[in-house]
Every structure is written in structure tokens, then in C-alpha cells.
Amino acid sequence: MINECVHERSVSRLVSRNSELSDSLKAHISQCENCTRKYNILCHENSVLKENVSSYKSNFEIKETLSREVELIVERYAEKSKRDARVLKNNSFGSLNHNVLAFVKRLTQPISLILMLFVGALYFLTL
Amino acid sequence: MEVSTVSEFISDKCFHFTHFLVEDELQASQLVFDVLQSFLIESPSALSRVESTGFRNDFYSRIYKLAKTRRDHFKMSESVDLSGRAAFFLVYEHRLSIGEVAKITTTPEDQVLLKVVHARSQILKDNNNVEKFRTSL
Questions:
Q1: What DSSP assignment string belongs to B14-52?
Q2: Is B9:B56 a contact under the CB 8 Å cutoff?
């Protein structure tokens, strides 16, 4: 398709992107028949597209229902995760690494060190 | 995870995208819920990043893939180019870059723009007022 005015392309590009037209281009559009036609067609097309896309938006009722459903799904999931974690904690010995680390960590606590010293002292006394 | 932020993102942006793709409110709601469930099963911690672009694009990508898989259930016309509609929506409504849209729709970057233009002209073609307006000028 051949543009009948060199500015048609600029008009087309800017209007399609919903960009602001410069003052000189606005002045040109008002004077040029081709550009005025192009501008009006593009504006009309834009309004049709906007209307079409907006028609798929969720209305208030759907939005409310969806929000409620999503909250329910997420809450149900959170409850299930908590329950699963509790069951796992109660019914398993945990991983070996975790248990060894926890044991060593407890050994380094002051009360453990005192007890170990006490047991060691008793052992040496009985020798 | 902020439940209200997740629910707002899903009921607003995700539903809009899905409804635009499948053109049926009930199917769109179901599809959105299924994608949410898949997130909760696979990577629930990801939901805490609901406001990040990466998460949102991942969500749109899953919606698009599921819609594509289920298109037979939706009784959608074979002439409808789902990737084109998805690309058009994401570019037009969310102003995503061509690269991002290409990733979401798994379409080569050089074809995305073509698909967007085609979907745009298809929407205009389906609207009788556009041709009438053109001829009236």
C-alpha cells in the first residue's frame, strides 16, 4: 500500500502506540486530507480494540467470586501444609544429618559441657 | 505470601487474559484455578513473588499452555490463532516486550509482531462497524 502523504506513517505509528502527537503533526493532520482520514480511521480502530479487550474484563460479581475462591484455595493449601508438617514432625526421626547436627549442637551447650566434665572427673577418680 | 495480592492478580489480570483467550467465563475461571493449583503444588514459595514480572510472565505462560492443551474442550474455532491472540493481548494490554511475549507463547521473536498485527486485524475484521466507518469517510 502506498502512502499518499509522507506523514501518514508517523500518524499511524504514533496513534497505534497511543503516543502523544507533536504540535506540528497535529497542525499537519488538520490541514492534510489523507492524514485526517488516516487519523480518524486509526482512532476509530483503537476505540474498537479497546472496547473488545475491555469486554473480557471481570465484572464485579466475577471478581468477588474469584477472589473468594482464590482465598479459599490458598487457605486450604496453607492448612494442609501445616498439617503435613505436623504429621511429618511427629512420625519421623528426621534426616541423619539433621539429627547428628542437633546432637552436636546440644553437646556444646554449657549444661552438657558441665555434665561431661563431671562424668570425666568421676572416671579419673575411679582409676 | 499476601493472599489479597495473589487474589487480586488472579481475579483481575489473569482472568482478563484467560477470558480473552478462551472466550468463556466458566472455562476461564477453571483454567485460572488450575494454574494456581499447579503453582501451589510445584512451587508454593513462588507465590510470594506475585508482584515480580518474572512470576507474572510465568503465570501467563502456564495459562497460555493450558489453554492451548484444552482448546478442543473449549469448542474453539480452528481458525483462531491462540498464540496470536495471546501475543496481541500481552502487547496491547500489558505492554510486554516482544522478547517476553515470545517466551510466554513459545513463538520465535520474528513471528510475534506478525501474529500481533494479524490478531489485531482479525478483531477489526470481526467488527462490522470498522468497515462501515472506513467507507463512510
A1: IHHHHHHHH--HHHHHHHHHHHHHHHHHH-GGGGGGTTS
A2: yes
**Do the interacting molecules here have an ipTM over 0.90?**
no
The pLDDT of A14-43, averaged and rounded, is 82
Q: What are the grid coordinates assigned to B40, written together? A: 501451589
Q: Does B120 touch chain A (CB under 8 A)?
A: yes
Task: Give the three-state DSSP class for B137.
Answer: coil
Q: Residue A113 belongs to what H/E stretch?
A: helix A110-126
B36 touches chain A (CB under 8 A): yes
Domain definitions of chain A by residue range:
8-54, 59-92, 94-127
CA distance B64 to B32: 10
pLDDT of B101: 95
Most B CBs within 10 Å: which of A29, A40, A55, A70, as the mutation test of the B interface? A70
Pairwise CA distance, residues A90 & A16, whole Å: 62
pLDDT of residue B20: 93
> CB atoms < 10 A from the CB of B13, how many?
17
* The pLDDT of residue B137 is above 80: no
> Are the CB atoms for B89 and A53 separated by under 8 Å?
yes
Q: What is the mean pLDDT of residues A15-38?
A: 81
**pLDDT given at position A2:** 54
Q: What is the mean pLDDT of chain A?
A: 84
